[in-house]
Amino acid sequence: MISVVLLGGGNVAHHLTQAFLACKDVDLKQLYARNASSIANFQNEISITDDLNLLADADVYIIAISDDAISSISSQLPENKLVTHTSGSVAMNSLNNTGRKGIFYPLQSFSKTKPVNFSEIPICIEAEQDEDLKILEQLAQLISPKVYQISSDQRSKLHVAAVFVNNFTNHMYKIGNDICKQYDVPFEVLLPLIQETAAKIQHVAPNEAQTGPAKRKDQETIQRHLNLLNTKQKEIYQLITKSIQNG
Amino acid sequence: MISVVLLGGGNVAHHLTQAFLACKDVDLKQLYARNASSIANFQNEISITDDLNLLADADVYIIAISDDAISSISSQLPENKLVTHTSGSVAMNSLNNTGRKGIFYPLQSFSKTKPVNFSEIPICIEAEQDEDLKILEQLAQLISPKVYQISSDQRSKLHVAAVFVNNFTNHMYKIGNDICKQYDVPFEVLLPLIQETAAKIQHVAPNEAQTGPAKRKDQETIQRHLNLLNTKQKEIYQLITKSIQNG
Ligand SMILES: NC(=O)c1ccc[n+]([C@@H]2O[C@H](COP(=O)([O-])OP(=O)(O)OC[C@H]3O[C@@H](n4cnc5c(N)ncnc54)[C@H](OP(=O)(O)O)[C@@H]3O)[C@@H](O)[C@H]2O)c1
Ligand SMILES: NC(=O)c1ccc[n+]([C@@H]2O[C@H](COP(=O)([O-])OP(=O)(O)OC[C@H]3O[C@@H](n4cnc5c(N)ncnc54)[C@H](OP(=O)(O)O)[C@@H]3O)[C@@H](O)[C@H]2O)c1
């Protein structure tokens, strides 16, 4: 049985709380948020607090608060304890607690209102000490079969890669949507293709999955497409086409 | 009962044949391919030919062959018949038959080896004459509930939008994969995020779904990311970041 105190009242804290509560081998001892109202929905199931001086004793402290507040919060946590955060982009040594440090980073895009299935969410863990890594591995495995040991250095690279496959992909959807609006075509016609594109990559390497006029070097189609785009769309179309063609 | 002759032995012909064969209200009379071997797998279920002079009589002829061969094939089809093609990027008036013209464009990415569920595939139809549009609508509805009347002009725009959401999105996956390889992080860690990104857009407008450092104008993170990228990746990161920030 691993005991946990979770800090944060946002998207990640919300879903981690639910995952831990659903797991009988995790003893979720307490929830902290600076605004107790953000975690009040859990108060019948678990002890909550908005006072860092009243934190319970636990094996692991998980800080699921905004990136730029992790350092300052961590310096106020109990001494000689294993303290972790859930961020993809903050280094482990940004933690300012006096004791042991670790990372417990669930690699998925969370929002409070959207239910998640933790058994499909990769959890990236890291710790300074081997024993702590084992504790985090155990804890992570209790909520997900996909546990990866990733260093802070690797995690920062993973985060850039995630920006491409998530944020930038979404921007491709946005431009597709803009083009549809511009020409009065229903964007929904493209939704099955969007799903298929993501589904394909689950089994096929991105290189092999690549199709389209850029890949085929079909200059005639490329030119016809460019004529339909505005200046900004054109710039992006040309740069990505060039990048696809350079392999 | 609508009778159909289907031309082509590739990805689209393969899946359309299966869909029509599975539908009792479609009379798939014949399959044509210039290399009979490419459609030989269907010869026990349906009449096949490699000779355009031996085409059967049917209500609708569907040309599912390579874009640049559509014009020439269409000029060799029976007179006074409704002839259609399945391409997203070829105009209806590229059809060179003497009779009626139409479009029967299934908007999805097909490959022979990957099973498809036609009930989730949008079919974009067009015809010169109202009666023909009705025939194509009936035929399309027999294999999919998602039937859209889209003009050649709109279809050419839809095709550009599809390049963004499919080809360019796949290239974002490719760059993510490159970064992972470069820094020895398993790309598979990103697969659930990729699926979630596509799943989110099924319900949320791309504008609202946008997250990340570009959207937050988090210059510090953006700079850190740029330092990890090679020249080409950097160029794409900067351009898309700018585009996200300009809304
Ligand atoms: N959302 C995701 O998709 C995702 C995925 C993986 C990892 N992460 C990481 O998980 C962490 C939390 O993200 P989130 O999406 O849950 O954020 P969020 O929904 O914006 O919630 C942030 C939480 O941090 C609290 N907070 C901010 N500044 C604070 C301070 N100075 N002192 C105390 N509490 C403070 C906020 O309190 P108030 O409500 O009072 O402002 C809120 O409870 C971040 O490190 C993020 O990088 C997020
Ligand atoms: N694949 C997709 O994801 C997709 C999606 C929607 C629409 N489409 C459209 O559907 C059509 C077919 O695409 P596909 O993916 O099925 O192509 P494909 O797999 O490459 O097959 C092309 C077929 O056309 C035949 N062909 C090529 N040139 C010919 C000629 N001069 N005379 C007779 N037959 C010829 C080929 O015969 P050989 O085998 O002898 O070369 C082959 O049977 C295209 O218009 C395409 O734009 C494709």
TrEMBL record, chains A, B:
Residues 121-244 form the DUF2520 domain. It comes from the Bacteria. Residues 4-81 form the Pyrroline-5-carboxylate reductase catalytic N-terminal domain. Coiled coil: none annotated. InterPro entries: 6-PGluconate_DH-like_C_sf (IPR008927), DUF2520 (IPR018931), NAD(P)-bd_dom_sf (IPR036291), P5C_Rdtase_cat_N (IPR028939), TM1727-like_C_sf (IPR037108). Gene3D superfamilies: NAD(P)-binding Rossmann-like Domain (3.40.50.720), ProC-like, C-terminal domain (1.10.1040.20). Pfam families: DUF2520, F420_oxidored. This is Coenzyme F420-dependent NADP oxidoreductase-like protein. It comes from Tenacibaculum platacis.
